[in-house]
Design a protein that fits this description.
Blueprint lengths: L2 E6 L5 H11 L8 E6 L10 H15 L5 E11 L2 H14 L3 E5 L7 H6 L2 E4 L7 H19 L8
Length: 156
């Protein structure tokens, strides 16, 4: 099974790339976590926020591999604790399907993404910068894996 983090935006600060690489690099080979960054769509001054979200949604959904389970990250999604995420990760592994975790742009996700998603996940009721979410998701996936495998990283 492969885990792919699909995100809008290609030019991230170095700390984002370093943070993501730190946690993704800890994952076992049979559960590799990769990042696929897609460029921000060209935006004209006349383009409103809803149109931008719709264009981003089309770009993101076109990059989701066929048969991949789609998890959309959205502040209005379901909040789970670490044990709940670990259970989900275990279920995903048992399903044998690859998983694509999707992060939208700074304006959020279009409804078409939430409707297409197999699960809409909220990291918190707080709103995070979408670049920070890359690091948070990688860390939480690693933490969930460590809990499933009795690894000492998760000490709760």
């Amino acid at each position: 099974m492969r885990l792919r983090l699909l995100a809008i935006g290609q030019r991230m600060p170095g700390w984002v790339e370093t943070g993501f690489a730190e946690y993704a690099g800890r994952m076992p080979r049979d559960l590799a976590l990769t990042l696929q960054a897609v460029p921000n769509p060209a935006r004209s001054r006349a383009m409103d926020t809803s149109t931008l979200r719709r264009v981003e949604a089309q770009t993101l959904l076109a990059a989701v591999p066929d048969q991949s389970l789609l998890v959309a990250l959205d502040e209005a999604g379901q909040v789970v604790d670490t044990s709940g995420l670990a259970r989900r990760l275990g279920q995903w592994q048992q399903s044998g399907r690859d998983v694509t975790l999707l992060i939208g742009g700074a304006t959020g996700l279009d409804d078409t993404v939430r409707k297409r998603a197999d699960w809409v996940w909220s990291l918190s009721p707080l709103t995070f910068p979408h670049m920070l979410v890359r690091v948070l998701v990688a860390e939480q996936i690693y933490r969930a894996w460590s809990l499933l495998h009795n690894h000492p990283y998760h000490r709760a």
